[in-house]
Amino acid sequence: EVQLVESGGGLVQPGRSLRLSCAASGFTFDDYAMHWVRQAPGKGLEWVSGISWNSGSIGYADSVKGRFTISRDNAKNSLYLQMNSLRTEDTALYYCAKDRWVQLWSYQFDCWGQGTLVTVSS
Amino acid sequence: AIQLTQSPSSLSASVGDRVTITCRASQGISSTLAWYQQKPGKAPKLLISDASSLESGVPSRFSGSGSGTDFTLTISSLQPEDFATYYCQQFNNYPITFGQGTRLEIK
């Protein structure tokens, strides 16, 4: 069974940093691009960042570019999101999501974790 | 950025009804559109990929159609478990964007 489990969320002050993790199991992790998608409380979905299967290609939403860094460790079946210079508008539930295609970007997310909540507040 | 506008934003319907949700893109995106279902407190679930391909395990009462700028998600006969929020998503251009969502409620 494909499983994605996020961790690392919490309450943080504006301007501080936080690192999210996503542990993957049940599939060949290093065959798939992975993504972070967030959802502010009571709001819709926003794609945050994606990384190719081999880390050779990375993309970011304009809202986080220059502040967030996505990475992965295929040996550990893990995905990460380093979030710096956090703003109140970054408050959201952050989902880890698996891309649909093997070794290609489809930007369609066929498996999601349950999310980890990040709250940015003073 | 490509904007996706879903209509209606909310919808009340009864079990057994046929329901159609529309997603309009601000510019042509070929068939690079997906549909997701999200139930309260749960992660989204991919229903339709590439505008019209039903994902494995998704009931056949769900269908997607369209290309270019206009897309539809149709549920042929609503079941109790279908009451949820539905999102369209385009992946033709960066940034990847989602529609604002359509909340489907029980009448």
What does this structure look like?
The complex is a heterodimer of chains A (122) and B (107). Chain A has 122 residues and is mainly beta. Chain A has strands at residues 3-7, 10-12, 18-25, 32-39, 45-51, 58-60, 68-73, 78-83, 92-102, 109-112, 116-120. With 107 residues, chain B is mainly β. Chain B contains no helices and eleven strands. Chain B has strands at 4-7, 10-13, 19-25, 33-38, 45-49, 53-54, 62-67, 70-75, 85-90, 97-98, 102-106. In chain B, the strands form two sheets. In chain B, strands 2, 4, 5, 6, 9, 10 and 11 form a seven-stranded mixed sheet that branches. Chain B has a four-stranded antiparallel sheet with strand order 1-3-8-7, with no helix packed on it. In chain B, strand 7 (62-67) and strand 8 form a beta hairpin. Chain B starts with a strand and ends with a strand. The interface between A and B is medium-sized, with 20 and 23 residues.
| Strand/helix succession of chain B | EEEEEEEEEEE
Greatest interface (CB-CB under 8 A), with counts per chain = A-B, 20 and 23 residues
Averaged pLDDT of chain A: 97
Number of helical runs of chain A?
0
| Helix-strand makeup class of chain A | mainly beta
Main β-sheet of chain A, in a few words?
7 strands, mixed
Radius of gyration of chain B from the CA trace?
Answer: 13 Å
Strand content of chain A: over 45%
Structural class of chain B: mainly beta
Distance between the termini of chain B: 35 Å
Q: Provide a count of the helices of chain B.
A: 0
